[in-house]
Amino acid sequence: MTEFVLPHNLSLENKQKLSVSGVTDVDSFSESKIVLFTEDDTLIVDGDDLHIQKFDKSSGELIIDGEIYSLTYTGQSGKGSDKGFFKKIFK
C-alpha cells in the first residue's frame, strides 16, 4: 500500500505572512519562534509578534502572520515524533 505524502511548499508575502503546506505537526510556538514538522524536516520560523492564523492538520496547511526574520531547516525529520504540541494537547 502506498503512503500519501503531503507536498511541502512555502510562500512568504512581504515578510509578514507565511503560508506553509505539508506540515504534519507543530512542536512549539511563541511570539518569537514557531517550530513545525514536515514529512522530511523540521522548520523553525523566527520573528516578532508571530501568530498562527490557521493550522489544518488533515491538509497540512499552516498560515503564520507577524514580522518574519528567518526560516531555518534543521535537517531532522519530525516524522514519527510524538513530541508535537497538538499531540500533547489532544491525546
Description:
This protein has 91 residues and is mainly beta. Helices cover 5% and strands 56% of the residues. It contains 1 helix and 6 strands; from the N terminus they run ββββββα. It has one helix at residues 85-89; strands at 9-13, 17-21, 23-29, 33-38, 42-56, 61-73. A 6-stranded antiparallel β-sheet has the order 1-2-6-5-4-3. A hairpin with a 3-residue loop joins strand 4 and strand 5. The longest helix has 5 residues, at 85-89. It is globular, with a radius of gyration of 13 Å. It starts with 8 loop residues before the first strand and ends with a helix. The mean pLDDT is 85.
Descriptors for this entry?
91 residues, mainly beta, six-stranded antiparallel β-sheet, 1 helix, 6 strands, 56% strand, globular
Layout of helices and strands, plus pairs?
Blueprint: E1 9-13, E2 17-21, E3 23-29, E4 33-38, E5 42-56, E6 61-73, H1 85-89
Antiparallel strand pairs: 1-2, 2-6, 3-4, 4-5, 5-6
